[in-house]
Amino acid sequence: MYNYENNCCRIIPYHNQHVHEFLGSTKLAERKEDPHNHRFAGVTGPAIPYFKSHVHKICTRTDNTNHFHRLDLYTGPAIDVGYGRHVHPVSGTTTFDDGHVHRFLFTTLIERPN
Questions:
Q1: Distance (Å, whole) CA 82 – CA 92
Q2: Which of 15, 57, 85, 89 could form a disulfide with 110 if both were Cys (CB 3.0 to 4.6 A apart)?
Q3: CA-CA-CA-CA torsion for 37, 38, 39, 40, nearest 10 degrees?
Q4: How many CB atoms sit inside 10 A of residue 14's CB?
């Protein structure tokens, strides 16, 4: 196991496991003082068995306006989108930085876009 980015990301080597790309924007924060949001993108960790499905670890940071936030969580279980493909729901709150947090809600992209 490798430690990356101040314990935010733990890269665990799995062989022959799929991953998902993801991208999104946070919801607005500091609506009265300094309304802003952030963008983020990345690739999940490999599939982790979860009951009759699986989840993925997500660990990334937002873009940097004058500060950034981290997203460090697990996706929800797989949602079938047909043709043997699936996505994962993701929702949560960023880390507390610059006096605030941001909420977010998105789905991963399909695991094999070809």
A1: 26
A2: 85
A3: -140
A4: 12
Q: How far, CA to CA in Å, does 15 sit from each of 53, 54, 69?
A: 18, 15, 30
* Residue among 84, 73, 88, 78 at smallest CA distance from 22: 88
In this structure, what token pair is assigned to residue 65? 């306006």
Lowest mean pLDDT among 1-5, 48-52, 56-60, 77-81: 1-5
Report d(CA 92, CA 59) in Å as an integer.
12
User: Residue 54 in contact with residue 76, Cβ under 8 Å?
Assistant: no
37-76: pLDDT as tens digits? 999 999 999 999 999 999 999 999 999 888 999 999 999 9
What pLDDT shows up at residue 30? 86
Asked if 1 and 7 count as a contact pair (C-beta separation under 8 A), the reply is no
The structure tokens listed for 101 are 């947090």
